[in-house]
From TrEMBL:
InterPro entries, per database record: PliI (IPR031948), PliI_sf (IPR038643)
Source organism: Spirosoma fluviale
Name of protein: Uncharacterized protein
Length: 206
């Protein structure tokens, strides 16, 4: 039996096994890629680089992202108890670096925040976010996120949630600074969640 035929049969044996009771994950040997709708086609293998499960009261979320390409496929599943509220896939810019669930506007409904960073030396941070209301999923917008009003911004964002705010921290570069040696200190910006048209927006505090 050739190596190719043996590998194909091994893949079939693993793929027909039932999923383990561990949320979204299906356990496969390291040499076999997971088959996932992240690729856009259930028959096309897609390797996952980021998976995470989160909980907020009776709500739970699973996040999974592919591991290659300038843009990545992100899949989000949201549940209220055992009820699947939504299951969607979208393209995001760069690899997923983290995810958090919070209630920044204190309305008792959860928001999901997914953080990505662009490939390359800049590592520009991005946030993709949604609030899960009883009747719908509402987008959370980030006005002017990519162009902070700070001279010397060159990416390298750190993002996290603390005390009902989303925090964004980045180094400030002066003329002549190398990419790895910023000399202008750091800038910290706090964002509040506010209603905006049919959704919500993260607004920078002055």
């Amino acid at each position: 039996m050739s190596n190719k035929v043996g590998y194909f049969l091994l893949s079939l044996v693993w793929l027909v096994q039932p999923a383990q009771k561990s949320g979204f994950h299906i356990l496969l040997p390291a040499s076999v890629y997971r088959t996932s709708c992240l690729s856009g086609n259930p028959s096309v293998p897609a390797k996952l680089s980021y998976t995470k499960s989160l909980r907020f009261n009776i709500y739970s979320f699973t996040i999974a992202a592919s591991d290659s390409g300038r843009t990545r496929n992100l899949q989000v599943k949201a549940y209220r108890g055992a009820l699947l509220l939504t299951n969607f896939t979208m393209l995001v810019d760069g690899p997923v670096m983290g995810a958090e669930v919070a209630d920044l506007d204190s309305n008792r409904f959860p928001e999901l925040y997914v953080y990505t960073t662009t490939d390359g030396s800049g590592s520009f941070g991005r946030v993709y976010a949604w609030q899960f209301l009883p009747e719908r999923k509402a987008d959370i917008l980030l006005p002017a996120w990519q162009t902070p009003e700070v001279d010397g911004y060159m990416g390298h964002d750190s993002l996290w949630i603390e005390q009902s705010r989303l925090f964004r921290k980045f180094p400030v570069y002066r003329a002549g600074d190398a990419n790895v040696a910023p000399s202008g200190g750091y800038r910290l910006t706090r964002y509040q969640l506010k209603p905006s048209k049919n959704g919500f927006a993260l607004i920078a505090e002055p």
